[in-house]
Amino acid sequence: MRLLRSDLPLDRESAWRYLPWILAMMVYLAALALAGATTVGDAIDGWKRGLVGQFTIQILPVQTADADPDAERAERAARVQTVIDHLKTIEAVESVRVLEAEATRALVEPWLGPTDDALDLPLPDVVAVSAREDGALSATAIEERLATAGVAIVVDDHGRWAAELVRFGRSLQLLALLVVLIVAAAGALVVYFVTRTGLAVHARVIEIAHQVGARDVYIARQIQRHALGLGLFGGIIGVALAALTWWGLGLLVSFAEVPFLPAMAPDWTMWLWYALLIPAAGLLAMLSARRTVLATLRRMM
Amino acid sequence: MRGPHAILTFSISIQIKARGAGTLVLFENVGLRYGDGPEILQDVSFELAPGSLHFLIGPSGSGKSSILRLIHRVLRPSAGRISLFGRDLAAIAHDELPDMRRRVGVVFQDFRLIDHLSTFDNVALPLRVRGVASKEVRQHVTELLQWVGLNDQIEALPPTLSGGQQQRAAIARAVIGRPDLLIADEPTGNVDDAMAVRLMYLFEELNRLGTTVLIATHNEALVERFGHSQIRIDQSRVRVLPGRGGRAH
């Protein structure tokens, strides 16, 4: 005797036979979208850690004609020291670091090419400032404090860049979520049509069951159980394929050395999503089938 | 072999037995037509008392099957009112229909067995839809199949059964739930005389246990032999003739 007997021969019906593979494709897409959202989330965290609370202060060079280079160097050093002294009076500042001239040249090299003294390009002195994690430091606060120093400066707030990136990342995450919702809706719709087909194919059996006193839920239970099994199977196949794809992508990214791209190795969050996707696919198929059966039978009778 | 009485005295705990005084089936000026076609039934009125046994007699196409289908609410009348167990059939909600149908056993003229289910599973269906435990299902179905002579066909699929065997399986399915009302459409149409008599004994035994029985047939010999009350349909109208035994209403 079968463990789960059914009065409807659903396993012999072609529409139901293809359902797990269609669901597998949908779960595959949903899994990739979720993996993308998780990776973007990790990237956002990284961007935040790297950029928020980081400021760069450019101390603009003062050009004087026929100035003595030694005197000019001493004057620049004095201006830098003044700025550092003022910065240290700000409570929210954790650390201050003066960038070496070489480091400053390296920063502009991608845009201006190799620079040297012969080019006579006045490069600013650059001071990097890190804020305390709990401190509220802003570019305006720095500018206000340095206004009394009598030094021409420009303050760059790296957090401003981070905010843009985070906004972009959040948009990508929302898009991924939307993809998951659309895929879920499409999956539910496919189950709806397959269930409707099944009800039409087995109309006679269902009619006989009704005539001997079967409630709609008796019939729904058999179909929803079948749909649950197929949904779980489709979920396992889809998630397995998605995990393989993501692993392959991670491998490609690790070879490519593209800046700003996060590591694409699946972490525990992604495995958790994947683990949840399998029962979610089963539940979606089951609930969609149940709802379709109950609504259709109520209309039929 | 155990007798029909032993077979039919099993109890099904979930079944609601509401036998008592009053009318079990009541037709009041019922008319029936399909679409814009002619009236198949005109102004039909009769009633079945609880515990009665009736033959429903009439020539082919006279509307016997239609009356049974009206009782089972497979069809709805185009005029008049039908009551079953004291309830107006038209007023029974979708959710109440299964409970109503569980109290009615039906033997369809075309048997309506489910082809991919074994004889056992077909007969077990009315118990399973009630949620009866598997052990109980097995016991009752096996006993009943033995009594209708299908104990060697338990795992057979209906298409492999003869017409008579299918009919017996259909009857077993109709009576397995100990219905309050049994309606049978030509239940002896495909069996030999000996089996027809045996099936009639089964119906009588059910009737003795309190089930109201309505048998549509054109087998006048059988009607004459058993002598129960008759509902005769003639030219869309109905006459009720009392039986010899006086048991029928």
Supply database-style keywords.
heterodimer; A: 301 residues; alpha+beta; 2 domains; B: 249 residues; alpha/beta
How are the elements arranged and paired?
The complex is a heterodimer of chains A (301) and B (249).
Chain A: H1 14-51, E1 54-59, H2 69-88, E2 93-98, H3 101-112, E3 125-131, H4 139-146, E4 153-157, H5 158-201, H6 203-211, H7 216-256, H8 268-300
Helix pairs in contact in A: 1-5, 1-7, 1-8, 5-8, 7-8
Chain B: H1 4-8, E1 25-33, E2 39-48, E3 53-57, H2 64-71, E4 79-84, E5 87-88, H3 97-102, E6 104-107, H4 119-130, H5 134-147, H6 163-175, E7 181-185, H7 193-208, E8 212-217, H8 220-226, E9 229-234, E10 237-241
Parallel strand pairs in B: 3-8, 3-9, 6-7, 7-8
Antiparallel strand pairs in B: 1-2, 1-4, 4-5, 9-10
Q: Main sheet of chain A: which strands, in order across?
A: 2-3-1-4
User: Could you give the distance between the termini of chain B?
Assistant: 33 Å
Multimerization state: heterodimer
Q: Give the helix proportion of chain A (percent range).
A: 55-70%
Give the helix/strand class of chain A: alpha+beta
Strand sequence of the main sheet of chain B, in spatial order?
Answer: 6-7-8-3-9-10
Topology pattern of chain B, helix = H, strand = E:
HEEEHEEHEHHHEHEHEE
Largest interface: A-B, 17 and 22 residues
Radius of gyration of chain A: 32 Å
Percent of residues in beta strands of chain A: 5-15%
- How many beta-strand elements of chain B? 10
Shape of chain B: globular
Characterize the structure shown.
The complex is a heterodimer of chains A (301) and B (249). Chain A contains eight helices and four strands. Chain A has 301 residues and is α+β, with helices and mostly antiparallel strands. In chain A, helix 1 runs antiparallel to helix 5, helix 1 crosses helix 7 and helix 7 packs antiparallel against helix 8 (268-300). The radius of gyration of chain A is 32 Å and the shape is rod-shaped. The relative contact order of chain A is 0.19. In chain B, the strands form two sheets. Chain B has a six-stranded mixed sheet, with helices on both faces. In chain B, strands 2-1-4-5 form a four-stranded antiparallel sheet, covered by helices on one side. Chain B is globular and about 45 Å long. Chain B starts with a helix and ends in an 8-residue tail after the last strand.
